[in-house]
Design goal:
It is built from 3 helices and no strands. The protein folds into 2 domains: 1-35; 41-87. With 87 residues, the protein is mostly helical.
Length: 87
């Protein structure tokens, strides 16, 4: 390869690396927003989730604790899928 070809290839690789860094930063931002309690749903969604999180264990602490864990996991999965589908 000649010197101009190497310089062009180097410039192309640097540009590709910069693009990959931007894509990674964007993916991390989206992951952080989807995991955040103040993510896409806003305050109303988090208030409802917190109210259920406090009220349900007080009403049926021992009998339904396993069910609550499964429901919380299911809601987290639904939220992640909706966030993924919005992109």
């Amino acid at each position: 390869m000649s010197h101009p070809d190497l310089a062009a290839r180097k410039a192309e690789l640097v540009a590709q690396c910069d693009l990959d860094r931007i894509r990674l930063a964007h993916a991390l931002l989206l992951a952080r927003q989807s995991a955040s309690p103040f993510g896409a749903g806003g305050l109303a969604r988090t208030f409802a989730g917190r109210a259920l999180g406090f009220a349900l264990p007080l009403l049926a602490r021992a009998r339904h604790s396993g069910l609550l864990r499964v429901a919380a996991l299911a809601l987290s999965v639904v939220r992640a899928v909706r966030s993924f589908m919005r992109r």
